[in-house]
């Protein structure tokens, strides 16, 4: 496995996902193995069964398949708690069907298609990515309260949303779109579990996705580092992840409670004396690379 130089946030978490300790810094990630979503899903679905090593990718000698299996189960249990709390806090999820293709192993050409299934292994990764995104946003905002590059989920286009609620009401469907949590509750509780109900829910989910706007910087000036405190205070997330501070970071989910962060985190980790004199990117003391 190739070592990766990066920035990480490392947490000490309770079984219910409460953060006890949090650390940001430069790290070296040496993965013990590279699991696919299918591998992780098999471990989640068979918590007491040992997965044959021949069905897993290579694991470094310092670790065993049992250790990896237990780590996945631990993360899954915490992710379930994080997800449950997120929706209690009023998050909204609008899942739309995605088409996936199977490729020929030799030619790389499509040989079939199917509906992509969003499973527990996907949810596990999603929860820790969201947790890291929010942690990074808090870190950056604390370091640069007037210049933080943050992202937000803007409120939906209200006219489209109100028209849709009125249309549903005419069809005999009482939908509450007063908040993200209310809309999520309506979509979750209004239908049963039979195929017909699920199909109707898919249609409504698609329709309610249209008024939603994609996330973006807090203000257009954010691209030139001009976010103001007033804007941060006013622009509270109302839909989507339902958190006040959020940003996007890229990279793979690391082992355990570690999440690689983007190189933009470097300024927040540098002592103020190193960057207080900088007037532009050419004067920044941190390199583009994360080490």
UniProtKB/TrEMBL annotation:
One of its GO terms (molecular function) is 3'-5'-RNA exonuclease activity. It comes from the Eukaryota. SMART domains: RNB (SM00955). InterPro entries: Dis3l2-like_C (IPR041093), NA-bd_OB-fold (IPR012340), RNase_II/R (IPR001900), RNR_Ribonuclease (IPR050180). Pfam families: Dis3l2_C_term (PF17877), RNB (PF00773). Residues 1-230 form the RNB domain. It comes from Sciurus carolinensis. The lineage of its organism: Eukaryota, Metazoa, Chordata, Craniata, Vertebrata. This is DIS3-like exonuclease 2.
